[in-house]
Each structure stands twice: as structure tokens, then as C-alpha cells.
């Protein structure tokens, strides 16, 4: 059996795997239980009482985290020439159309979010087989298919994230970095959780928010008492 490094052993010792922590305490503990030397991501894993196979229960949407994600997202905007300067002024990292469709066709995906105008979706559709599996395909529900390219870029740069339930009924989402204060992590967590509460499908039966766990990239999972979620 491989020996557990001292730093990891110390982190594991801080978390009781059988205890349900308040959301406030969990946000403080996830910082203490992190043992990496880099600024790790802090993620929420939320198991919902939904059946993702049913269209009305396939939860997906967006939320603007009040304190951002701590990560600078590289944004590609595919648009008509008259909107290029607007996208650049808003802070888009890559702007254009034909040249980027060609680059992506060749396998280039060096960006985090792709925003497209409705008018160019025919061209974007040709690279859907590349963008789709990587979660990069523009979608009206996530606000990434829009004529307001500047607004969309500002939202992404300002902390807007997309989320969607997986086939097991779980949503995995980053809410910041371990360098964030526990108050900022708490604020971001509350924003995501309250958004999900509002999206509860009327057809979902039983407990909606079945479990919530918070963890950094390398920390043990910390179970949250759902009764403490505001």
C-alpha cells in the first residue's frame, strides 16, 4: 500500500467523513483541509432528486457568482464583422469567424467559452462535433448565443458560469479558489444553491437537494447539512 504523504494525512485528519457541517463551517474547513501548493479550485457537488432523462428535469442554466471564479476565462466570439470591435472592447480574447471555424476544424480549442451570434450559427454548426463534447458549444440557454456579444463577454469575465446536471443527477461547479476568503466562497455557494432551489421542477418528487459536498482540487470531500443552506 502506498504511503500517504504527511500533508495529505494532516488534511484528511481535519475532516470527519461522517459529519454534516454547516455551509459556513464547510467553507472555512475546505481552506484548512487543502494541502496543495497551488491555488486549487473549490468545487460544489450537488446531488439533486431529479431524473435527467426527463426533459423538464434536465437542470441546466447560468449564474453570476458575486465574487467571480478566480480564473481568467479565455473567450472566443464568433460574430459578423460589424460586431468585432464591440467584442474586442468588451475584453474578448479571440474575435472573428471564418479563420476560427477553420482553426477549430483543425483541432484548436484554446479557449474556455465560445460566444456566437445567431446569424453565424450555421457556420458554428459545422464545428459542433468538436465543440459539443468539450462543453464549448454556444447555447441560447447559457446566454452564449446572442446579438449582445459585449454583454455576454462582460458576464463571462465578471464571473458568470454555466452548470448542468449530469446523467447521475449531480451538478459539479467551481465556486472559487482556496485563496478566496471563506466569506467569498460562502457568497458564491449561496448564489449557486439559491439559483438551483428556484429551478426545482414541479415534477420532481421527494427531496430535491439530496446532498451537497464541497472540496478543493485535492482535499477530502466535506459534507454539508442541507438544513444550513439559506
Tell me the radius of gyration.
20 Å
- Distance from N terminus to C terminus (CA atoms, Å) equals 42 Å
Principal-axis shape: globular
Structural class: alpha/beta
Mean pLDDT: 91
Number of H/I helices: 8
Largest sheet: 4 strands, antiparallel
What's the arrangement of strands in the largest beta sheet?
Answer: 7-1-8-9
Portion in helices = 25-40%
Strand content: 15-25%
Ranges with pLDDT <50 over ≥5 residues? none
Element-by-element helix/strand order: HHEEEHEHEHHHEEHEE
The tally of strands reads 9
Model description:
It is a single chain. This protein is α/β, with parallel strands linked by helices. It contains eight helices and nine strands. Helix 3 (84-89) links the parallel strand 3 (75-78) and strand 4. Helix 2 (23-32) packs across helix 8 (182-198).
List the helices and strands and how they pair.
Elements: H1 6-14, H2 23-32, E1 41-48, E2 60-64, E3 75-78, H3 84-89, E4 94-96, H4 98-105, E5 113-116, H5 121-125, H6 128-131, H7 149-157, E6 160-164, E7 170-177, H8 182-198, E8 209-216, E9 222-224
Can you give keywords for this protein?
single chain, 230 residues, alpha/beta, 4-stranded antiparallel β-sheet, 3-stranded parallel β-sheet, 8 helices, 30% helix, globular
Outline of the structure:
This protein is of the alpha/beta class and 230 residues long. The protein is 30% helix and 21% strand. Strands 7-1-8-9 form a 4-stranded antiparallel sheet.
